[in-house]
Amino acid sequence: MPEFMDVHRNMAGITKEDLQAAHDADLAIQGEEKVEFKSAWADPEAGVVYCLSEAPSADAVRRIHERTGHPADEVHPVPIKV
Q1: Nearest to 55 by CA among 72, 39, 32, 36
Q2: How many CB atoms lie within 10 A of CB 26?
Q3: How does residue 59 score in pLDDT terms, banded at 50, 70 and 90?
Q4: Which residues contact 77 (CB under 8 A, 6 or more apart)?
Q5: CB 53, CB 8: distance < 8 Å
């Protein structure tokens, strides 16, 4: 299944607990869109969060994040990795 990296901006001050809660919310409904969220990273000072997932499409990733209240600003396919 294709991988995607999504970016959330304007998340300044996010804590580890906030990130975990957002990730858990995604995990709770990810199966409804056949998405598998793998990891999430945050930079509280820059206010940026990144999530890596496998999904049938970028739109599926967007729908999950929208439904859990933290829409992605960008969703990028990851066709090559090392």
Answers
A1: 36
A2: 21
A3: very high
A4: 2, 3, 4, 58
A5: no
